[in-house]
């Protein structure tokens, strides 16, 4: 519970325990069709006044060959309606196909400059994958090309709450 007695805004996955191992089918190291599938996510206790949600998923331990650790963006999803309680496994790339409330959701570019989920493929394991969900008091208007940078800039002054899920790969 939060200090004011309310329930805490949280992000969970039925497939990933917090600080648990990221299953192989959600990575670029999976096999065949069981590869690069976006993981299922659920959220609870949205802050009052939430009008949309934005999700940013990053490998926060990615080394930059030129210098310091620079997070690698795996997935950006914006304008998730607050009436939706989660994203199903394999959602990435299917918002139009799923229709209804999912149709207005927009996926941004990952660090491979492609829209949608891109699971990690790493030379060494033990990296942390951070799923950060922002509850916002408005929709984000980012134009046709959604990126992590545009999302993080546009959310400033609109965040009602943040929820984090950490996975280890």
Automatic annotation (TrEMBL):
The gene is 25491475. CDD domains: PEBP_bact_arch (cd00865). The lineage of its organism: Eukaryota, Viridiplantae, Streptophyta, Embryophyta, Tracheophyta. This is Phosphatidylethanolamine-binding protein. Transmembrane segments: none annotated. PANTHER family: PEBP (PHOSPHATIDYLETHANOLAMINE-BINDING PROTEIN) FAMILY PROTEIN, UNCHARACTERIZED PROTEIN YBCL-RELATED.
